[in-house]
Amino acid sequence: MKSALSAVLAGCVVALALPWSHVAIADAAPDSAIRYVALGDSRATGSLLDPLSIRDGCFRTADAYPQIVADTLHAESYVSRACAAAKTENITETPQFTITGPQPPQIGALRPDTTFVTVSIGGNDIAWSSLVEPCYTLAPGLDANCRSDATTARRMNDALTVLGPKVSATLAAITEKAPAATVLLVGHGGIFGDRGCWPYIPTSDADAAFVVQFFVRMNSVLAGAARSNGAHFVDVAAAAVGHDACAGSDLRWFEGLVPRSFTMPLHPTHEGLRAMASLVVAARP
């Protein structure tokens, strides 16, 4: 009798437990927490507006666009391993030597549960600033005519040829380390517009337009690498039209060769970093 009663009670418990378990599983919300890791070079480290926050020899500051993104998205966790002068190899496998000592490969910050990654990389791999140097003039009103120089064209073509595989391999390594993460590759460009403004952008108007087209090609390479690795491309250059280094202080997102604010030459201003952060937030699926 006692055994029979126990069996009945056990059956009731099972009957009650199974529906409850089913409801609990069905109603369980997916993990929506944002665990964000920022990787890359000096475009992701900040404008130096807050020099006291510089640390680790990487020149990361409080107004870096990834920090703004993390704050905007209310990320559950956020870490930046972006470092000035970084190349693709410094993300994946090679320590980067800085003024305060070596920094380990940035990819070490990724975890299997990382959900969001931004990457700003590629410019230092091809030393893009050296590629456009032949376009600079020593005085206003001159024309270096770099757009017609075969050597300049060849160097640009060679650089873009090697850039794609490097960035693609970097994105593949990131995806392997953080397979659940949404990865955004942030594009280059925006510094140059369709005109020069000596000494900030010390080029003729025609050469400035030529440099813009170089960045169009560069971004095409980056966008292709993103597509082939399931990442999303953030087109900064398209949004930055009218906000180049020749624009007025109320519109300028980037500084030129000679900066007019507390910003590194040829880098985004505080306003530019905020704009980049907005573009990243909008591009996140």
From TrEMBL:
<feature type="domain" description="SGNH hydrolase-type esterase">
    <location>
        <begin position="38"/>
        <end position="274"/>
    </location>
</feature>
<dbReference type="Pfam" id="PF13472">
    <property type="entry name" value="Lipase_GDSL_2"/>
</dbReference>
<keyword id="KW-0378">Hydrolase</keyword>
<dbReference type="InterPro" id="IPR037460">
    <property type="entry name" value="SEST-like"/>
</dbReference>
<keyword id="KW-0732">Signal</keyword>
<dbReference type="InterPro" id="IPR013830">
    <property type="entry name" value="SGNH_hydro"/>
</dbReference>
<dbReference type="GO" id="GO:0016787">
    <property type="term" value="F:hydrolase activity"/>
</dbReference>
<dbReference type="InterPro" id="IPR036514">
    <property type="entry name" value="SGNH_hydro_sf"/>
</dbReference>
<feature type="signal peptide">
    <location>
        <begin position="1"/>
        <end position="26"/>
    </location>
</feature>
<protein>
    <submittedName>
        <fullName>SGNH/GDSL hydrolase family protein</fullName>
        <ecNumber>3.1.-.-</ecNumber>
    </submittedName>
</protein>
